[in-house]
Fold each of these.
Amino acid sequence: MSVMGVVQRLAEESTEFDPNQVTPGVEGFLFTGLMAAGIIALGFLLVTRLRRNMYRHEVREEIAAELGEAGADSEPRS
């Protein structure tokens, strides 16, 4: 038998397993839930801002096109 095997066997026999010390408990569950809710909220905010910027860009392009057409119409023709 190797030294590591003996050490591992002694460590297993000498330690008692307490499930309350290795589980996250209520605090871990609440923290995970709050983190998930926060990430979902940030996702919704990101989508809202991206959509708003997309609409602003489209409106600016439409205004630039209208001003370009109005500028082309007012130029004198020779």
Amino acid sequence: MPKPANPTPDFFGFADLLSDAERAELATLRAYLESEIEPLANAAWERAEFPFEAVEKLAKLRLAGYTYPEFGDGRPRGELFSGFLTLELNRIDPSLAVFSGVHTGLAMGSIRGGGSPEQRERWLPDMAAMNKIGAFALTEPEGGSDVAGGMRTTARREGDTWVLDGAKRWIGNGTFADLVVVWARDVADDNVKGFVVEKGTPGFTATKIEGKIALRTVQNADIVLDGVRVPEADRLQRVNSFRDTAAVLAGTRGGVAWQALGIAVRAYELAREYAVTRVQFGRPIGSFQLIQDLLVKMLGNVTAMFGMVVRLNQLVATGHATAEQAALAKAFTTTRMRECVAWARELFGGNGIVLDHGIARFFADAEAVYSFEGSREMNTLIVGKAVTGHSAFA
């Protein structure tokens, strides 16, 4: 008698490393996301509009407080749980996951890591409750990978006030955020500093970037800073150079690897389900050798990705993870993700290019995840320097 099919993308059982309570919490989260968030995803993506009702739904889960228990429900969760949480969000909607990652990882992470105790208490409780939404303004129109050395946005101190001038681009949540962490170069000492700019500050304008083919729900903005005046009390007090900015990015780069895994997992799930239900030539296409080959290649990628990100989070938990390891995880997983969504779209044939069957949205969104938080090439150079001892940066 043949064995029943095994539909799980977690073929080696990495989730078994979680506690029973953590697995139960993730199961509850998955059910909620599938019932409350997934029905909103395709329509919002097609319209390129942000579903603000989804924020209210996520706020009920206190998701933004998971990473910072002192501002959430007070219950600490392990690094591995955080990774699986990122997987689940991306499995449903990469765009909404980016919204959450920008708000929680980048904006809240900047304030928690770079802010004084007073600043953390002033902003983070409201952000953990999603009463205030954050954004992170680093990338510039002429500076992406080289923004560390080529930042053109400036900060000039006048007494107890700072004056910010410049422009930022690709700023997620930028069109509606209540608080934007802006990184600017101090003209006095040439060091990068961080500033929290509140919505409505004179001289701050944000314009939505139109015409995107990926992460269409994410409201990326072009931001102009024209004589924006920020009090010294709103300068992140523990940020003294770009090294502090890089520390925030290093902490979120591993999260992007989990994001890539979530997208690949969903691509595999959708492809496998389609393969066992779509009938051609009188039989399910999943019974054909070429289709099984695509599924097995996808499953192999997903399994390898699981192994890398799980181990990375274990290293983070013990304080032994390095920036080079995070860079390798980001470069590797996003490349394997790109393969998975392409194979899945191929398996769907013509049905793979319409939103009805789900895979088209993930296929498109993968392109953005492949590029942000350090392109594959930049992360390759980080790892290349580590393994050769020679820097190949221009």
